[in-house]
Fold each of these.
Amino acid sequence: MTKPDVAQERKNQIVRATVDCISRYGYHNFSMQDVAKTAGVSKGIIHYYFLNKDDLMMSVLGKVVSDIGNVMHSDMSALDDPIKKLEIFIEVCFDIVRSTREYYQVNMDFWTQINQKEEVRSVIAKHYVKFRKTCTQVLEEGVEKGVFQNVNPTEYSSFIIASIDGMSLQWLFDDSAFDYDKIVKQVTSWIVSGILTK
Amino acid sequence: MTKPDVAQERKNQIVRATVDCISRYGYHNFSMQDVAKTAGVSKGIIHYYFLNKDDLMMSVLGKVVSDIGNVMHSDMSALDDPIKKLEIFIEVCFDIVRSTREYYQVNMDFWTQINQKEEVRSVIAKHYVKFRKTCTQVLEEGVEKGVFQNVNPTEYSSFIIASIDGMSLQWLFDDSAFDYDKIVKQVTSWIVSGILTK
Amino acid sequence: MTKPDVAQERKNQIVRATVDCISRYGYHNFSMQDVAKTAGVSKGIIHYYFLNKDDLMMSVLGKVVSDIGNVMHSDMSALDDPIKKLEIFIEVCFDIVRSTREYYQVNMDFWTQINQKEEVRSVIAKHYVKFRKTCTQVLEEGVEKGVFQNVNPTEYSSFIIASIDGMSLQWLFDDSAFDYDKIVKQVTSWIVSGILTK
Amino acid sequence: MTKPDVAQERKNQIVRATVDCISRYGYHNFSMQDVAKTAGVSKGIIHYYFLNKDDLMMSVLGKVVSDIGNVMHSDMSALDDPIKKLEIFIEVCFDIVRSTREYYQVNMDFWTQINQKEEVRSVIAKHYVKFRKTCTQVLEEGVEKGVFQNVNPTEYSSFIIASIDGMSLQWLFDDSAFDYDKIVKQVTSWIVSGILTK
DNA sequence: CATGAATGAGATTTCATTCAT
DNA sequence: GATGAATGAAATCTCATTCAT
């Protein structure tokens, strides 16, 4: 059978269409009709697969968050040098923003919901926990090997991720403010040299 | 004149009410009716003072951005020591987030509009230009006095501001993730020691 | 001012239009749009005066129930003879059904809701309490004067009202089944003679 | 044949499920989906056996009406005494309401349709014709035997049935209004003594 | 200036019905 | 026969905006 899971495929199709719509029309300026048109399906079928718009949006958030999370986990295990590993981690993170700019923004759009919808806040919070954990592992390895100073790895992870998010924001607000590639390298160097044993 | 622009006072009143509503009901979930009730005025009068909801929102953005900007400029000129000055700058910034958490969140809510409304993007971009400039001045003073390394001050400003925004985000997503006061001090120390001449 | 209470007048106008719609299209086959058109107003204004369709329907029920209740209280106090009084009470009741057939049916339409909406059931129940009380007073007077047997007046009231409702139902189902005027007289006589002291 | 009409059995199954749904969700608040789930069949198959929802509803009405009709015809022929016979007829009728309260309510729900759907009105009207006829036969027997007064039996049948329906209504609206068992006996006595030869 | 009744476009959602499999 | 995915009409409800008073 070439029809292993029509339902799942349809759901994916609708979620993808929704991401498109958010990108194009804005987080709260798209209608179910828009999603239907984009996905090439009828309005009704969306409510067949998703309880309501909220439910659909939670699926979108889930996808965005997990997609970003998945990219981050891409082969770092192959590397031995903690410094190289950290540099690559940072590079990959910055790359997500640059190469999926609209996608990262859709992710950002959910931030407006953290005060109104506990579930949204919770998903994002968990994403950051995982995010920090990934980074922490890299740092701990370096600390163990004596390459990195004995800082609190979780705290320094927060700091690293904060720098990446913060720089990305400034770039999204104004991509002529600085040369992204150049400043990414600069920031990476500041972050890395900040933790290197003297 | 003892009649200092009643119109302006009315506009302020409405804008303040709107900030309240965004905080309470969410950026996309409040109505002009809500604003009217909160401000204690009629629905009609809002459209007398503001062209439409968009116009009102731009005024809100203007207020939020300038309020935050104003806090930052508070007495740093009195200090002589560049290190102390930088530390205070960072502290003040973090304080804005902590002490006006909801307010900062309203500011953040506008970030989701940068793709849809060029004017919003532009206002935020200008805010960050000013923000960086303030920081840059502090850094330049330190570089001049030989206390700070000869890094590109604008780039390091971006980095500083990025750290502040990024840490604040993580805290807004989950205020149990770390002790804000403690990590603020830690991050401040990392930022400062990263630029000190060895 | 000839505009003492625009709001109340509008509400009445909408409620009246709703009764019309229920009569014409059926209890669950009319839309807010229909009501708007019938009342000659816009769809939106209905939701300005009524929270939602349910709220509107409760107002309709209130009106129907109280209108019917009001008719029943029409001058019986003038009469002295308990028998005459009872006969007139019964006549008035039957008259309500005959002369406001559609109206009585709208009232009936709410009966489908008694299992789903406690408030509906409660309003109807209270209406019947009042209904029985009115009848009971007539009976008690007759018992006191020794004209009526010493039956339980509330129970006999229930029986009287039951006969009226039940006969009306059969007539509504098939108005060719019997001559309404004739059978009303017959039933009245059975009811009255059933309580007369021998 | 040992395959006694699978189709009929399926139809019954669906009709029964519909009665359940009306009871549970209300006459106007259940969907074909609900029926399908309750019957344990697919949504599609319902439209295979029934033309549409209206058609299904007519089948439900048919079932409800004939079920109630059937109960009424149960063993009265064995009795000789017309008084006893009449008492039992009344008792059985009241029993239908008490013992199948929800069922009787479903029957009542159709009453609201008599204005909109001639077919519904007609079925109900025919049901009452049969109902009255059954009662009339009991009365005629008593008149013939000189036990009952020479009233018009059809008219008195209407009156009897009206009392039963009317009392049941009041009870359905508020089952705390009176003790059903007690008042049933009382009403029975009033009805019977109203027709006894003096 | 100020009010709030009124409008109407448009959003979400439900659901009877169809039809390919 | 049987399924359930798919459709699309229609319903309720919200809300920015207008305008007579």
Amino acid sequence: MARTKSAPENRMAKRMLILETAIGIFASKGYHATIMQDVADDLSIAKGTIYEYFPKKEDLFLAVYDMWMDEYEQAMHKAVDDHFDPVSKADALIDTTVEFYEKHANYAPLLLEFWAHALRSSSDIFLVRIREMKKRLAELGVEVTNQMQKLHLFRKVDSGSFAVLELGISDGIFLQWVLDGQQYSLRDAYKFRQSVIGSGLMTDTLRTIVATKVEKKLQQGFINQSINRS
Amino acid sequence: MARTKSAPENRMAKRMLILETAIGIFASKGYHATIMQDVADDLSIAKGTIYEYFPKKEDLFLAVYDMWMDEYEQAMHKAVDDHFDPVSKADALIDTTVEFYEKHANYAPLLLEFWAHALRSSSDIFLVRIREMKKRLAELGVEVTNQMQKLHLFRKVDSGSFAVLELGISDGIFLQWVLDGQQYSLRDAYKFRQSVIGSGLMTDTLRTIVATKVEKKLQQGFINQSINRS
Amino acid sequence: MARTKSAPENRMAKRMLILETAIGIFASKGYHATIMQDVADDLSIAKGTIYEYFPKKEDLFLAVYDMWMDEYEQAMHKAVDDHFDPVSKADALIDTTVEFYEKHANYAPLLLEFWAHALRSSSDIFLVRIREMKKRLAELGVEVTNQMQKLHLFRKVDSGSFAVLELGISDGIFLQWVLDGQQYSLRDAYKFRQSVIGSGLMTDTLRTIVATKVEKKLQQGFINQSINRS
Amino acid sequence: MARTKSAPENRMAKRMLILETAIGIFASKGYHATIMQDVADDLSIAKGTIYEYFPKKEDLFLAVYDMWMDEYEQAMHKAVDDHFDPVSKADALIDTTVEFYEKHANYAPLLLEFWAHALRSSSDIFLVRIREMKKRLAELGVEVTNQMQKLHLFRKVDSGSFAVLELGISDGIFLQWVLDGQQYSLRDAYKFRQSVIGSGLMTDTLRTIVATKVEKKLQQGFINQSINRS
DNA sequence: AATGAATGAGCTTTCATTCAT
DNA sequence: TATGAATGAAAGCTCATTCAT
């Protein structure tokens, strides 16, 4: 059944080859310190050839981001789809994230650079891409959170706000871990955070006292409110 | 009483002048897009003069980071020093952070760039600086957390891990807010997170069931453990 | 009678097709700004195919020039052949030139570029081509001028010099017209020039005074003389 | 009185130095074949230094054109100012042009290239510059022509059209001369043209016959007419 | 004959940094 | 101390041309 790859297939294969090489160089050197010649040399192809597939250096960078994030997103969707109860789903999401980041630990700084680049680039295509992915991930979070609430495992909480918070927390822990030189277990950090967020830190006494106020805050969230202000 | 400033004072004043101009340009254009001539022009001085104060562009960037982070750190310390009970201290820390970031909202992308730059720079001076500051801030967090525990407001928790987690979360929320285009209230987001972390999301039923396990996780933290591994 | 075109005929047809497309692109973009891919795209053929017909970009450019100039030259010869008396011939030559340039007004800048290119090209093939064509056109001019003189319509004049002068004038007016943005009628300009050159601008009084001197100049021309110098 | 040159004077001097070197290289190699490194090397300065004076290659090219045309224009104005009677003025204009072109014979192809470049450049600054200069030169021509007519040395002629025609003719002859490889005397060519235009080529017989018609044409010119059409 | 992927020399432009004044 | 002219390494990108299929 195996046939010679058709031209378009070859083209995509070469495109992937370039991307896979580029991600390594971008990751280890950073966007500005990576020169196109480096990528070409690593691939043993001519500089011009890269430009046949990616007209601008920035396009290559964006494609690298896309490739990477697609992998992450698909893994996250798979995590949710592969489990039935929301608790398992939540665990699976964390596992997936940890595994993904640990597997690509050396690419980690890239994410920071994508973010920095997105905020600087003259075009907002990077930002749009980031936001769209975040939106999709947040929807996953909302779904799981809602299920948790339906099963009375979670208290009433604005699931939209919570999902966004969780994404931020996830990135924040990862960021911390990278800046700290990956000196502790990323998984442990995520698990610790799960415990903190799950059961809270207050003692039962204090918890009872602030119950009403907390309840309100949780249900309000922080996203809907702000719409009223701005 | 007023005298002509001595030479060293003048020097420091000019240094500050350069820094204050530089931070604005770095913030709006980014590190790579900022050219030394821009800074000189804005100050109406010659390019060479900047080099009298900062031998390398990177030094200027680092000094900008230091100036900014010093302001933040001092505000954080003041927040703790100005209050007696740990609850007020915790609130003050959050307020300070929110106020600081909101006041300098336009400088926000800079922080990302500092981080990205730190991970890329050939010298690790940026990373060292970041880690030292994080360490000092974590100590603040440990102090407040310990007080909370002593007063039986917080459950037993590894305060070192919690402080690091909190820093990560704080950065993560900020990062999210920046990437999302600052479209919601940063303060609301921080307050929401405070509620989530404080009282947790589990219902009492679930909370009781997982009590032991959670208790253990919280007390272990994630930092000491990892020492055993690596 | 109609048969499938033989291979060579097909080849020539395709060659022409390429030329006709190329002239439009060269005309609108200029030699350097025209890239071979543009030409191929416009023809919906592959880049490599063009090279089957024109080994170098310069060859394509030269062929475009040839095609264009051949058309002009043939029209000029036809103008002379189609009329009997020299006055009509002269009128027809002007008409032909005006019609040719007006018809191809959008190609006009090309001529300038051919000239510039000819003076720059490492090979002198362009210059040779231009000079040969000018020579043939000058011969036409000489023929008509001689006839005019024979019929005593023209004074004694060195017809070689006069023909060369006329060619220069013709190009000069055209050039002026192009640089001026084609804001006046090219035909009017040519007709005006015809009147000036034909009857001269001097009043009869002045004309009489300088008669001898002028007579001499006209008969000497400027071409034969210079041979003695260089 | 002689002092050390002030900074601005030095700057202008260096600018001129660059221009004088650049014109030679542009002239011998052409715009596209001239690379900035060539110019820098000839000056024994660094490439970057040229960019301190001329931000773009095109700016350098334009400045070369300006420098050259300024010299020509000033010489032309001087020619007119230095003589009283219009006949001498006209002679002086021709002499000046011939001398200018002969003196800079090796730069000659540059003019063609300026024109070609002007018609191609994305900015119209070149074209504007050319047209402005032509306008000023045409005004000179009008002035002299009018004086000729006032003294009854010239017949009635639309002096505006005639001046524009003369400019075109002048360029055309020069162009011819350049393309012909400067093989004859440019001065002789100009003088020959002066005779042709001055006294005309028609015999007295023919001249009398077409007198009315020619008279009308000369008085109409070709520039005013065209306004009515477009 | 036609294709189009691959090539790589080559060019403009930038800008951190230096240093003579 | 301050200046700003000079430097020159560096890098992104282009595109005519080649050639295996």
